[in-house]
Design goal:
The structure holds 3 protein chains of 3 kinds. Chain A contains 14 helices and no strands. By secondary structure, chain A is mainly alpha-helical. In chain B, strands 2-1-3-9-4 form a 5-stranded mixed β-sheet. In chain B, strands 6-7-5-8 form a 4-stranded mixed β-sheet. Chain B is α/β, with parallel strands linked by helices. Chain B is 46% helix and 10% strand. In chain B, helix 2 packs across helix 15 and helix 9 packs across helix 11. In chain C, a hairpin with a 7-residue loop joins strand 1 and strand 2. Chain C has a two-stranded antiparallel sheet with strand order 1-2. The chains are: A mainly alpha, B alpha/beta, C mainly alpha. Chains A and C meet through helix 1, helix 2, helix 5, helix 6 and helix 7 of A and helix 1, helix 3, helix 4, helix 5 and helix 8 of C.
């Protein structure tokens, strides 16, 4: 467990040059507290990074090593055979594409509708806004499993089963409240004067939305998209319930291709597939991370 | 508020509609529909390995059939994970959207579907296709409901053995058990020698549930579970008490690996094939990993198997044990038409030969299973056991009990074996659970 | 409120989200509520039973109550890990000057990994035969007496399944709290420091009160997510051994899809919704009173 985490540890424990310290803390030399806190942070980071590293290492193990060896030791030999098998048995490319379509579609709805609702609730305001707000709160609270049978029956009545929308609609619906909350708290942060000035210039609610609110919310949009993508990319329950055809299967359903007779699973191939399928998410995640963190911070700190 | 009320009424109506939509005038016993064969796409909702023999063969047969019947296609919708599959099947059944073909065990839920006339009578169907007599009687019996009716068609035939490691048994100074009652003492000896006696997949629940079925099957025959599930027999009966006491003894002797309840299928098998565990109870579907050169060379020469031991005064014979024919395929009565019938006729006639060629046991007797080139001698020995089976078979309890009782039994079994509850507590809990739930399912 | 808004513009912005939300969430919930007064196995005719399901749940179902208390325990552990961990790491981060961004990113990583892989890994970490990471560590640091099959021991399993769930999403909460801590005015802290306030006093008297609103929000988020926790316990132990790690959500799922008792499952779902509402109400009440005091 040391190999992948080592560079990280070094980066964290490297002493900070003292000249960059703000005046307040100058006199506090590296004392017991800061040493302790660094060690603690290093430990916590190892705990957070380890599973991903373990997953990757395991996906490189030979089947024999996986079956007989210590799961936590370094592999005796490295093989890419699991990846070959993962691609051969599964339909990873198509699964990734489907997950991508569903994630994008749901995100589009979540962002656009979330922003609109927050705009109506927070910026425009109206008499029953409190009631509507609490109505949306219910969505944060309800366990999704219970909606399955009713939704399935509803979708089969309107012939929506086995389509992209049958996954996108419930995913977006259940994520909408959190998105509305994040946008609302961000909109609160935009000074009233900005709106009032625009209003005096004769801008109506639509122009203000397009010219002020929308461009100012880019950070929050990134945040909402990434937080939701994590959940949607890995959603199993809606996809398993509403998808029937092979061509529409998303990644979590595709991972079932490695399950054999009586539940015997080809774990090394599964992990190889997991590594492949989280890569797109991880890339987007790392690249946009900075924007996301800023978005989340500016949204939340005003919550 | 008024809007809310209207919505609630609409919601109610939508569900009520689906709930009552069980109608349909098709007669499930009419197995030879008349009319023209009009090719179209049909679907099979199934729970089998995506890259397994059944799916590969049926895909190929469907392609062959489509050559003569342009426009035909077989859409295979597989959900290999069984709990996820069951959720899907039930959701589709609730919405009245079951496809032409679907997989199910002979569970009480399936029996209710059959009672509502949603499944074609498979016995009549197989007879009309003139293949009924090809099937192994025990393969068909496994699929039957209690009333003897047959609504599912088997695609496999498996035998369950207890595989063991001769070298480890020798090291502990014990031999393969003559009687089920020998096993606890055997485990103690193995534990003393530092060996895990039995590797078991506790996560999937069914493997431990096999063990509860063994003693009653020997003591009282296959009828015990049929009575027990309806509340006509009880765990307080002698056969019931015997299995409860035996399981408690297995637990006390630490027969299963420590912490087995959360260990999965591969974990258990790996413990056995890596030579850490002495015994492993599994069926012939694992022959490719246990009886070919894929098996770890370190243990390859030490592996053997025995069938379910008998007991003193056993009412069933040594050649009668668990021989399941896997999850069966039901034919939806509502969508059954000349095309489905014609395709099944085509596919069921060709399936056995193709299946046997993969090295697996066909549910029929008209073909010879090919032994793969990389097989060890055990492979053939295992297959030959199928030629000499008795008339009775031990049914896995998970397909027999009503689902609520079954879930509770699986949970309480772990507690009993781990020693968290006493045999008395187990008996009381289970008998009252059956009394509470059985009437709903077995009216 | 915007001066130039019209009733129409409010509707234009509000209706589309309400429509989606209504179709995807509210409507099925109402259907569930409706189902809770019926006995229905999915394929038979529905039978109106009035309050029978509710009476059975509250008076005659020992597994229900067991799951309820388990869910509370599960919630408590998740909250401690998520909020406590988040607060701790966020506080530590503010005292660092380098590598903050990197650590924040790394801290979020576990959220990306699919649940199946996480469950699989933790089963191995907790394992005793063959010996897993946790038992190995205990052995090394001389606490060998504590070694046990964590997921099979009925006394430890609940904590063992809560930990991965708590750990997974700490990063998200940490980010929110960290952002709030950054917004604490420097002048306030400095003034307190000059008055000789200790680190602890600084935290309890200045920082924490300042982030109170955010703290309430995160607590509500974590509580409702905790009460809805499902997949990790379901995958790791399926509620076992016995009912030791059965939660209301896993019990509801099994009632619906294993026992095909959709009416009763809906009743449990209604309870979960009410339970969440009560929890949110309680949190607001307690924190408000504390703030007023």
């Amino acid at each position: 467990m040391t190999a992948p985490a080592a560079p990280v540890t070094r980066a964290i424990t490297a002493p900070a040059p003292s000249d960059s310290q703000p005046p307040l803390r100058r006199r506090r030399k590296p004392n017991l507290f800061s040493t302790l806190s660094r060690v603690l942070i290093a430990l916590i980071v190892i705990v957070q990074v380890y599973p991903l590293a373990w997953l990757f290492i395991t996906s490189l193990r030979t089947e024999h090593d996986f079956a007989t060896g210590d799961p936590f030791a370094l592999p005796k030999a490295i093989t890419f055979e699991n990846y070959a098998r993962a691609f051969e048995t599964g339909n990873l490319g198509m699964n990734i594409l489907n997950s991508f379509i569903v994630t994008m579609g749901a995100n589009l709805l979540i962002v656009l509708l979330g922003m609109m609702a927050a705009y109506a609730l927070q910026v425009l305001g109206f008499r029953f806004s409190k009631i509507v707000r609490s109505l949306f709160l219910i969505g944060i609270i309800v366990p999704v499993q219970i909606a399955l049978v009713p939704l399935f029956i509803d979708y089969s009545t309107i012939n929506l089963l086995d389509t992209y929308p049958s996954m996108i609609i419930p995913l977006a619906g259940f994520a909408l409240p959190m998105s509305i909350y994040l946008f609302s708290s961000f909109f609160e942060y935009i000074p009233r004067e900005t709106y009032e000035a625009a209003s005096l210039d004769g801008a109506g609610p639509y122009r203000i939305f397009g010219l002020i609110t929308l461009p100012l919310s880019v950070n929050t949009v990134v945040t909402v998209v990434l937080v939701n993508s994590i959940f949607i990319w890995n959603d199993f329950i809606f996809a398993n319930t509403f998808v029937l055809s092979e061509e529409l299967k998303t990644i979590p359903l595709g991972l079932q291709n490695y399950i054999g007779a009586m539940g015997k699973t080809d774990w090394t191939a599964t992990f190889a597939a997991v590594c492949v399928t989280i890569t797109p998410l991880l890339l987007v995640f790392l690249v946009l991370n900075k924007a996301m963190i800023q978005g989340l911070e500016s949204g939340a700190s005003k919550g | 508020m008024k809007k809310l009320f209207t919505a609630a009424v609409a919601a109610a109506a939508a569900i009520a509609l689906a709930g009552c939509g069980s109608g349909g005038t098709t007669d499930p016993s009419n197995v030879s529909p008349t009319g023209e064969v009009k090719p179209r796409e049909i679907s099979w909702l199934l729970s089998r390995p995506a890259d397994g023999a059944v799916i590969n063969i049926m895909k190929k047969l469907a392609d062959d059939y489509a050559k003569d019947h342009p426009g035909f296609a077989l859409n295979l919708i597989t959900t290999p994970d069984r709990p996820s599959y069951i959720q899907k099947l039930e959701t589709l059944a609730a919405a009245n959207k079951l496809p032409e073909l679907f997989d199910t065990d002979a569970t009480p839920f399936a029996q209710q579907l059959a009672k509502q006339g949603k499944m074609v009578d498979a016995e009549k169907l197989l007879k009309s296709l003139d293949v009924y007599d090809d099937y192994r009687p025990s393969a068909l019996d496994y699929q039957r409901f209690d009333d003897g009716s047959l609504h599912m068609i088997p695609f496999q035939f498996e035998l369950e053995f207890i595989w063991y490691n001769k070298a480890l048994l020798q090291k502990a100074g014990v031999s393969a058990p003559k009687s089920l009652d020998d096993i606890p003492a055997m485990c103690t000896a193995l534990r003393d020698a530092g060996i895990t006696p039995i590797a078991i997949d506790g996560q999937d629940q069914w493997p431990l549930e096999r063990y509860v079925a063994y003693q009653p099957f020997r003591e009282a025959g296959p009828e015990f579970i049929q009575k027990l599930k309806k509340g006509e027999a009880k765990f307080t009966d002698p056969a019931g008490q015997k299995t409860v006491e035996w399981l408690a003894a297995l637990g006390k002797a630490k027969c299963f690996q420590d912490g087995f309840s959360s260990q999965g299928y591969s974990d258990a098998q790996n413990q056995f094939t890596s030579g850490q565990a002495a015994m492993y109870n599994i069926g012939t579907w694992e022959l490719p990993s246990l009886a070919t050169d894929k098996l770890n060379p370190d243990v390859r020469d030490d592996i053997d198997f025995f069938t379910l031991p008998t007991t003193e005064g056993s009412v069933t014979k040594a050649n009668e044990f668990v021989s399941p024919s896997g999850i069966g395929m039901a034919v939806n009565a509502k969508t059954y038409d000349p095309l489905v019938s014609d395709f099944l006729k085509f596919a069921l006639a060709k399936y056995p030969a193709e299946y046997a060629a993969t090295g697996a046991l066909s549910p029929t007797t008209n073909v010879e299973t090919a032994v793969p080139a990389n097989a060890t001698p055990l492979y053939k020995k295992a297959l030959e056991m199928a030629n000499d089976l008795g008339d009775k078979q031990a049914m896995p309890w998970d397909t027999q009990l009503d689902p609520t009782t079954n879930g509770r039994l699986q949970q309480e079994l772990v507690l009993l074996v781990q020693g968290n509850i006493t045999p008395e507590q187990f008996t009381t809990t289970m008998d009252s659970t059956i009394a509470q739930n059985a009437p709903k399912f077995f009216k | 409120m915007l001066p130039n808004r019209s009733r129409l513009s409010v509707l234009v912005f509000l209706l589309p989200p309400l429509l989606l939300y209504g179709i995807a969430v509210l409507f099925p919930i109402m259907q569930s509520l409706f189902l809770s007064f019926f006995s229905w196995n999915g394929i038979s005719d529905m039978e109106f039973v009035g309050l029978e399901n509710y009476v059975r749940m509250l008076t005659a179902d020992d597994i229900f109550w067991r799951s309820f208390f388990n869910a509370l325990g599960y919630l408590a552990i998740c909250l401690v890990l998520q909020l406590g961990g988040a607060l701790l790491v966020a506080s530590l981060l503010t005292s660092m000057r380098r590598g903050r961004e990197l650590i924040k990113t790394l801290y979020l990583l576990p959220a990306v990994i699919s649940t199946v892989a996480i469950a699989f890994l933790f089963v191995r970490i907790y394992s005793i035969e063959p010996v897993g990471l946790l038992n190995q560590l205990l052995h090394w640091i001389g606490l060998g007496a504590l070694e046990r099959p964590w997921l099979s021991d009925i006394n430890t399993v609940l904590a063992a399944v809560s930990a991965p769930e708590g750990w997974r999403f700490t990063g998200l909460y940490m980010l929110i709290i960290y952002a709030a801590l950054l917004s604490v005015p420097q002048e306030l802290e400095e003034a307190a420091r000059l008055d000789g306030a200790s680190r602890w006093q600084l935290f309890t008297k200045i920082r924490f009160p300042h982030i109170m609103p955010v703290w309430i929000t995160t607590t509500i988020m974590a509580t409702t997510y905790g009460l809805r926790g499902f997949d990790i316990p379901y995958l790791m132990t399926n509620g076992g051994p016995g009912q030791s790690s059965e939660l209301l959500t896993t019990y509801m799922y099994k009632t619906a899809f294993t026992s095909t008792d959709f009416g009763y499952a809906s009743t449990i779902a209604v309870f979960i919704v009410i339970e969440c509402l009560v929890a949110v109400g309680l949190i607001l009440f307690m924190l408000k009173r504390k703030a007023d005091a």
